[in-house]
Amino acid sequence: MKNIRLFSVILLIFAGLLNAQKIGVVDTDYILSKLPQYKEAEARLNSQITSWQTEIQTLQTEFDKKKAALENERVLLVGDQLKQREKEVDDLDKKIKSMINNRFGMMGEINNARSNLTKPFQDQIWNAIKTVSEKNALGIVLDKSNNISVIFLEKRYDYTDKVLDLLLKNSGAKRLESGQKSNVGSPVRNDDEEKVRLMQGTDKRAEEMQQKKKN
User: Fold this and answer.
1) Model pTM?
2) Are 182 and 175 in contact (CB under 8 A)?
3) Are residues 129 and 158 in contact, defined by beta-carbon separation less than 8 angstroms?
């Protein structure tokens, strides 16, 4: 299967060269891991998962104790009393298994939550890749994260950092526009704006010094 994927990649590259198209490669998993908003959302999800695991462990401990007590006292229990205790243990066992399946199963809450968590960021990455592709006239873009084995890659063909920089820049702009503090960092000042700011600061200090001398 791996050889088939590699052969498919080679065919894509060969076809791109025939059409004189530029080829780019990105690593979407790396990009995703570097987005501050994604890391914050992932941390919240991991905290919820830990809480669920703790809850299940607590129920499992309770189940083990009830089951052990039932086995130790079985000879003393008769009739409805025995049936009631057996039912309590059986119901708790079913509850634990149902909870594990509903939360940690293939179609469980965690997989659904992770899918919902990832999708909007994947859409952002796709839009950023499209922008970078158009700006750099790329005809083909391969994703190293998508089960594609890249044996060798020259740095000039790797557009991962360009896509990530664009996403972080857009993220910072949105945070600043909404009046929130940016986690990406302070915006870079335009050189001319910086010169004007320094000149204004110098003039202001000079005026203050002259005023002090007059006094």
Assistant:
1) 0.57
2) yes
3) no
